[in-house]
Amino acid sequence: MTTLLASWIPPDERGKFVTLVYNGIDFGNVLALVASGWLCDVEILGGWPLVFYVFGGLALVWTFVWLLVISDLPEKHPRISAAEKAYVMQRCGVTREKPLPIPWRAIMTSLPVWAIMVVQAGNNWGFFTLLTEMPTYLKNMLHFDMRSNGVLSAFPYMVLWVFSLTYVAIIELILTRVRVPVLVIRRISMAIGW
Question: Hey, where are the domains in the chain?
Answer without folding.
Answer: 2-95+117-193
